[in-house]
Amino acid sequence: MIELEGVPELIDPVMVAAFEGWNDAGDAASTAVAHLDREWKGEVFAALDAEDYYDFQVNRPTIWLDGGVRKITWPTTRLSVVRVGGEKPRDLVLVRGIEPSMRWRSFCNEILAFAHELGVEMVVVLGALLGDTPHTRPVPVSGVTSDPDLARTMDLEETRYEGPTGIVGILQEACTHAGVPAVSLWAAVPHYVSQPPNPKATLALLNRLEDLLGLRIPLGELPEDARAWQLGVDQLAAEDSEVAEYVQTLEEARDTAELPEASGEAIAREFERYLRRRDTGPGQTPGGHATESGDASYLRDTSSGRARPPKPLRPETGGGTGPGSPPTGGPGRQPPAGEGDERIEGTENGDAGADDSDGPRDSSEDSSED
């Protein structure tokens, strides 16, 4: 039985979730939720029992010193609440953790139980996959759902994916079967520079989340980090003629595929989105800062870090050559604890639909999913 005595009554709550691991190329999705938690001062009110869902030989606990006292942090999934201030305040329930090693159905049922108790109106799960997309172009972000009505009313794609999936796909389907509206937002990360962090993809996910929920999200240093990330990858790619040539091929394919979208209607739609995002409505805090979410006694979950952009990998043969091709792999390696929490760069969010995929790890395996 779930008891939420310390959580205040929520206003139009939406659950936003992301999980490190297979569905989190470049740590883009988990970093996006961490950004929301930090900017809006979220405080943890619940954590799932690590013993139930994690293999500690796969996701090892860490030992650290707190004033000379040794403590252990166990891999788990935590829930926090933030209140978004403004003319029409609303609450977000943030779910951030690691893809579970076992008992996925019980894991999803436990999250859905929290959603039910908190009166969550919709679940949005963030993910990131590897794709044949150049780092020099806007990050494609696709919004997909299993609900035909939701697809129609919110201008989303109805997923048709078949194949291996991760916890993002399982949680979305669990929500659908439970009658809870659910959406997945997927950012496509260049497979030749897949190492975390990828602030450009993180920024693209947050921009799309803004549009989906009608919120203004304080971006902090993310835009600057995104520009720095792209500049760093530009410089590293220029040092390798093979990579530079491959990036140019991806650019040409992407630009050719998007030519029909360069219409007056598409340009006007993008400009309206920009104005909505930058205009501050009456009564709204300029930075979109949250108000206090109650006087409940919560535990604070914090993270920080920074890393220089990684050197691009040499392109692998046999992958797709354009944005319409299936992604060539999954998120790749899982970084050491804390490495993916840092931010570097981000850029504008493109409307070009990324393949709705869970992005399997194997870079030779094509897939595309919600």
Structural descriptors:
370 residues, 11 strands, alpha/beta, 9 helices
Lay out the secondary structure.
Elements: E1 14-20, H1 28-39, E2 43-47, H2 50-53, E3 62-66, E4 69-73, E5 78-84, E6 90-98, H3 104-118, E7 122-131, E8 139-145, H4 148-153, E9 157-158, H5 167-177, E10 182-190, H6 199-213, H7 222-238, H8 241-258, H9 264-278, E11 349-350
Parallel strand pairs: 1-6, 1-7, 7-10, 8-9, 8-11
Antiparallel strand pairs: 2-5, 3-4, 5-6, 8-10
Give the low-confidence spans. 280-370
Number of strand segments? 11
Radius of gyration: 20 Å
Terminal Cα span: 31 Å
Task: Determine the number of helices (DSSP H or I, runs of at least 4 residues).
Answer: 9
Category by helix and strand content: alpha/beta
Give the helix proportion (percent range): 25-40%
Query: What does the overall shape look like?
Result: globular
Can you summarize the main beta sheet? 9 strands, mixed
Q: Note the run of SSEs as H and E.
A: EHEHEEEEHEEHEHEHHHHE
Average the pLDDT over all residues and give the rounded result: 77
Range of strand content: 15-25%
In short:
With 370 residues, this protein is an alpha/beta fold. Helix content is 31%, strand content 18%. It contains nine helices and eleven strands.
